[in-house]
Amino acid sequence: MTVVIHSSDITTESAFLKRRQLIQSALLLGILPAVQSVSAEVEAPNTIEQISRYNNYYEFSTNKEVIWKLAEAFKPHPWTLTIEGEVQRPRTIAFDDLLKQFPQEERIYRLRCVEGWAMVIPWQGFSLASLIKTCNPTSRAKFVEFIGLERPTEMIGQRNKMMAWPYTEGLRIDEALHPLTLLVTGLYGHPLPNQNGAPLRLAVPWKYGFKSIKAITKIRLVEEQPVSSWMRSAPSEYGFYANVNPDVSHPRWSQRREVRIGHASKQPTLLFNGYADQVASMYQGMDLVKYF
Ligand SMILES: Nc1nc2c(c(=O)[nH]1)N[C@H]1C(S)=C(S)[C@@H](COP(=O)(O)O)O[C@H]1N2
Ligand SMILES: [Mo]
């Protein structure tokens, strides 16, 4: 199940954790209905130190342990988000207005990196669907493209041309409108740290982490499947769908097991990262090996 807590209920990390314990007890007592198996979402979240000191963010560095430091000088404000393309009502919205227009909720999601590690992160944000709906997509809107920021003065990893900047990603329209797909504005009750994608990033919990693009500046509704940064730089390794799947190996490693950051031993990778009950129907009849 997805536990939804309004972020106004949360002030500090300890208050958050207390709240979390209450929910877990309620689940155990059967007070809250467990819609899905409680396997994934009730795992204890990683600590804020783990979440904010071990990152992937190639705009800054390929070294996970220094990104937080390199991102300290990044200025996420002011920020605007543009929604354009196959919509009847294109919009450019200031980040502060997004916060006012869309109530923020707390969502505890697993994040599974394609490299084989995973965390559980208490995000806050709002559903991407609620924003897209305000733009009235046309019938030609079949996919959604997300575009990151290009600012090499602050994002020093962009001086390295290892991939085409800005970072881009994409989803099929039904995936983008799925209620689990979250536009993230914070974690642990705090505004999003720079290293985690401030001020605005995506969280698509059933897909490998690289789909959850950070520092989004533009959302474009399009008719054709977009080519993401990773598909462009390594097409044989990174497909468009990137659904977490223990049975589909990366060409250079198995995806059968994963390391939960902070845990000593490996654990099995879950199909759709544990969200199969909620998302598998979108892929009925689709060859998940071919569309990896
Ligand atoms: N713009 C941008 N977004 C990105 C990345 C990136 O390099 N640039 N890395 C992705 C990858 S590979 C992962 S695993 C997650 C990591 O998110 P985290 O650092 O908040 O844990 O961000 C994703 N989003
Ligand atoms: Mo990743």
Automatic annotation (TrEMBL):
Spans traversing the lipid bilayer: none
Binding-site residues, Mo-molybdopterin: 55, 58-59, 113, 196, 201, 212-214
Pfam family, one: Oxidored_molyb
Superkingdom of origin organism: Bacteria
InterPro entries reported for this sequence: MsrP (IPR022867), OxRdtase_Mopterin-bd_dom (IPR000572), OxRdtase_Mopterin-bd_sf (IPR036374)
Cofactor(s) the protein requires to work: Mo-molybdopterin
Residues of the signal peptide: none
Free-text cofactor note: Binds 1 Mo-molybdopterin (Mo-MPT) cofactor per subunit.
MF GO annotations: metal ion binding; molybdopterin cofactor binding; oxidoreductase activity, acting on a sulfur group of donors, quinone or similar compound as acceptor
Domain Oxidoreductase molybdopterin-binding: 74-230
Catalyzed reactions: L-methionyl-[protein] + a quinone + H2O = L-methionyl-(R)-S-oxide-[protein] + a quinol; L-methionyl-[protein] + a quinone + H2O = L-methionyl-(S)-S-oxide-[protein] + a quinol
GO biological process, one term: protein repair
Keywords: Metal-binding, Molybdenum, Oxidoreductase, Signal
EC number(s) recorded for this UniProt protein: 1.8.5.-
Record family assignment: Belongs to the MsrP family.
Subunit structure as annotated in this protein's UniProt entry: Heterodimer of a catalytic subunit (MsrP) and a heme-binding subunit (MsrQ).
Function: Part of the MsrPQ system that repairs oxidized periplasmic proteins containing methionine sulfoxide residues (Met-O), using respiratory chain electrons. Thus protects these proteins from oxidative-stress damage caused by reactive species of oxygen and chlorine generated by the host defense mechanisms. MsrPQ is essential for the maintenance of envelope integrity under bleach stress, rescuing a wide series of structurally unrelated periplasmic proteins from methionine oxidation.
Name used for this protein in its record: Protein-methionine-sulfoxide reductase catalytic subunit MsrP
Species, as recorded: Sapientia aquatica
Lineage, broadest ranks: Bacteria, Pseudomonadati, Pseudomonadota, Betaproteobacteria, Burkholderiales
Gene: msrP
